[in-house]
From TrEMBL:
The keyword Nucleotide-binding applies. The lineage of its organism: Eukaryota, Viridiplantae, Streptophyta, Embryophyta, Tracheophyta. The keyword Cell cycle does not apply. Pathway: Cofactor biosynthesis; thiamine diphosphate biosynthesis; thiamine phosphate from 4-amino-2-methyl-5-diphosphomethylpyrimidine and 4-methyl-5-(2-phosphoethyl)-thiazole: step 1/1. The gene is LOC103318894. SUPFAM superfamilies: Ribokinase-like, Thiamin phosphate synthase. This is thiamine phosphate synthase. Residues 81-325 form the Pyridoxamine kinase/Phosphomethylpyrimidine kinase domain. Keywords: ATP-binding, Kinase, Magnesium, Metal-binding, Multifunctional enzyme, Nucleotide-binding, Thiamine biosynthesis, Transferase. It comes from Prunus mume. Pfam families: Phos_pyr_kin, TMP-TENI. PANTHER family: HYDROXYMETHYLPYRIMIDINE_PHOSPHOMETHYLPYRIMIDINE KINASE THI20-RELATED, PHOSPHOMETHYLPYRIMIDINE KINASE. Its EC number is 2.5.1.3.
Amino acid sequence: MVSIPELHSNFFIISLSLNHYQSVPQGFRQSKGLSLLLVNSRINRNKHTRIFMEMQGNGSPTTSNQSTINIPHVLTVAGSDSGAGAGIQADLKACAARGVYCSTVITAVTAQNTVGVQGVNVVPEDFVAEQMKSVLSDMHVDVVKTGMLPSIGIVKILHQHLREYPVRALVVDPVMVSTSGDVLAGPSVLAGFREDLLPMADIITPNLKEASALLDGVKIKTVSDMRSAAKLLHDMGVRNVLVKGGDLPDSLDAVDIFFDGEHLYELRSSRIKTRNTHGTGCTLASCIAAELAKGASMLEAVKVAKCFVETALDYSKEIFIGNGPQGPFDHLMKLKSNAHNSGRQVRFNPSDLFLYAVTDSGMNRRWGHSISDAVKAAVQGGATIVQLREKDIDTRDFVEAAKSCLQICRAHGVPLLINDRIDVALACDADGVHIGQSDMPAHTARALLGPEKIIGVSCKTPEQAEQAWIAGADYIGCGGVYPTNTKANNLTVGLDGLKTVCLASKLPVVAIGGIKVSNARPVMEIGVPNLKGVAVVSAIFDSECVLTETRKLHAVLTEATAAVK
Ligand SMILES: Nc1ncnc2c1ncn2[C@@H]1O[C@H](COP(=O)(O)OP(=O)(O)O)[C@@H](O)[C@H]1O
Ligand SMILES: Cc1ncc(COP(=O)(O)O)c(N)n1
Ligand SMILES: [Mg+2]
């Protein structure tokens, strides 16, 4: 057993091997109430984690000097919307979309959908207080954002807690009436807003009706009225005011007025034509809070938030959720934005494998072609998908070349894949990757690239094809069909091997290896429905005129496919 010098202190950093650590009897460790953090570079991460967990599990106090990361944190104090378009649910989605942690104090539970608010159940005040205390006494909150505060008692409780646990900023969305016209907080809360929250708030974000209510019913019908209202609200003691003009009649733009006490800003965005505007106010305020939590200035935060709402509305303008007049929108469009931005509605179409062009830097050098010229010619000649396979290029140059090839491919509606390099695919937002059996496992690539990207895997056997399918690949490449010099030590599977793999594969297949104009026909004629095309390197790129060679191959493939049908 190793000797450990300070066995009576609660926290140790001991550097010793795993065997030595395990030789310290567990009962002895526990009797001393020790918390051990084992620091040893030779111990792999899993073992390290296991030991650390064991220490926590034995009930003794644990402390760690592991470095920690503080994630920006917004606490929303708001009501729940069962339809999840507004309220707490919108706040959570908005913060997630902006990359900020969001904790929640629920003030009321509403039964709500796209038709309206069918019921409101206010959470008892002492339980609202208990939620606030739980969060604020334990977690580091950067910014508090308020939504539905249904009673003056709840406003007072919030005020007390913010005095006890000060935060960096307070964003007040003075929610009173839902878009559907239902009352969420009565006029009795107005006194609480005026006396307690406004003097404490860093920004208040009323819509037209709420601004009017706070200003004793003053009429707000024009942009000029909004400007005056912003100034009057500022006089009530709040640092910044944003009067939102979502409901401004006859306005082609969505105009909001921001006043910081010195300057008035007219913030305009296009008014998206959509029924899906339920929750815009909650989202806007949460985004402001999220940006402030990340360290933005108030004007920056407001601008980013407005832009986010506009983009999300535009992205969601045609989605259909619920049968009422006011639908929710999609906050997390970014998760799908790659497919969206590229204009490729279908993520992967197996028929894209028909004429699959794989680049080769050596061949391009030999013929004096740049990568992008070669890709352009291939695409113009009829290539239906392109893979950049660049083995001897600096990463920086690879990313640049990939970006310019991507533009060419996008203009022709042709997907662009990157060979092996998931990092390069991510860096240039390519449409996917093609990986071999010794590259990163396909399921890891899928986790990194997300559900929208195309993943292809080289497979020579039915077992590998099965694995690729399990791992979430979209297609497999099978070969070498014919002997080839492009790839060293590459086993030739032949037409029979290709057929065997195709029959076993649940995924579409592209054949590869030594395929050219003169021998492509028998490949397409093996007559297996999931063989969708051929992948070629030298057949098109080892030539002076890539365009002509690609056209020739395209013609042969078209003829062969017509004959098979
Ligand atoms: N159709 C729309 N297109 C673009 N932006 C909009 C649209 N409707 C509302 N907005 C914006 O959404 C935010 C919330 O505004 P508003 O709907 O007035 O608040 P609330 O949801 O509290 O009633 C504002 O920035 C507003 O300009
Ligand atoms: C629980 C809850 N909080 C806030 C709103 C306001 O959102 P909107 O003004 O977009 O209807 C709402 N409808 N429900
Ligand atoms: Mg609204």
